[in-house]
């Protein structure tokens, strides 16, 4: 029996010419071919305001577009995030989307000592990050700092586990053969729902 997989495309440009869209399409194709149920959220096409105050974050009601995305996450067993590295981190639009999405009433109630209960426990995740620099530079020199923070301080905090990642560097370099290899790798990950 297949898994329910949710793909979240975090590129802020809705123009599907970016390689991240091809990666998510390859993952979806592999997953569907293996009998998994796939739904998708395109952050660039989702209408939502930015949160500007703590009161709004803790006590405000999410807009209907975000409530629908929360429903999709609730139903998913595995969630895959795709985004490009911009200024060393995820794009601002994706960060704003996550702030709307992972409100305390949805993903974790505050308990003693400032810790959260993990209301999204039991869901696995993968983070796929594309970047212009070589992946080894991001891993060794920058120590994958923003990716590790996302995995541990956001996804881990709300209960996702295990959380795996794929870093695809040198996105502007390499020819068609290299890009085809990357797409096949995504397709295989989709087939295994990993």
What's the layout of helices and strands?
Blueprint: E1 4-9, H1 19-33, E2 37-42, H2 54-59, H3 64-75, E3 78-84, H4 92-101, H5 104-107, E4 124-130, H6 135-140, H7 145-158, E5 163-168, H8 176-192
Parallel strand pairs: 1-2, 1-3, 3-4, 4-5
Helix pairs in contact: 1-8
What this model shows, in words?
This protein has 194 residues and is an alpha/beta fold. It has one domain: Rossmann fold (3-Layer(aba) Sandwich), CATH 3.40.50. Helix content is 43%, strand content 16%. It contains eight helices and five strands; from the N terminus they run βαβααβααβααβα. Strands 2-1-3-4-5 form a five-stranded parallel β-sheet, with helices on both faces.
How many domain regions? 1
Biggest sheet, spatial arrangement of strands:
2-1-3-4-5
What structural class do the secondary elements suggest?
alpha/beta
Please report the distance between the alpha carbons of the first and last residues: 15 Å
Number of strands: 5
Principal-axis shape: globular
Uncertain runs: none
CATH homologous superfamily grouping = Flavodoxin domain
Quick overview:
Helices cover 43% and strands 16% of the residues. The protein has helices spanning 19-33, 54-59, 64-75, 92-101, 104-107, 135-140, 145-158, 176-192, and strands spanning 4-9, 37-42, 78-84, 124-130, 163-168.
């Amino acid at each position: 029996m297949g898994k329910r997989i949710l793909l979240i495309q975090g590129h802020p440009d809705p123009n599907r010419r970016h390689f991240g869209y091809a990666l998510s399409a390859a993952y979806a194709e592999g997953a569907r071919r293996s009998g998994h149920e796939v739904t998708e959220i395109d952050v660039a096409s989702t209408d939502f305001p930015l949160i500007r105050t703590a009161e709004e974050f803790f006590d405000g009601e999410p807009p209907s577009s975000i409530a629908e995305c929360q429903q999709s996450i609730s139903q998913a067993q595995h969630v895959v995030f795709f985004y490009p590295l911009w200024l060393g981190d995820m794009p601002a639009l994706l960060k704003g989307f996550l702030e709307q999405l992972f409100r305390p009433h949805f993903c974790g109630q505050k308990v003693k000592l400032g810790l959260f209960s993990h209301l999204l426990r039991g869901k696995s995740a993968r983070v796929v990050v594309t970047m212009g620099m070589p992946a080894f530079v991001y891993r060794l020199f920058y120590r994958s700092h923003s990716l590790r923070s996302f995995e541990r301080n956001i996804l881990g905090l709300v209960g996702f586990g295990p959380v795996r990642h794929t870093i695809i560097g040198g996105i502007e370099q390499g020819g068609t053969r290299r890009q085809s290899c990357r797409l096949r790798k995504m397709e295989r990950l989709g087939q295994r729902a990993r």
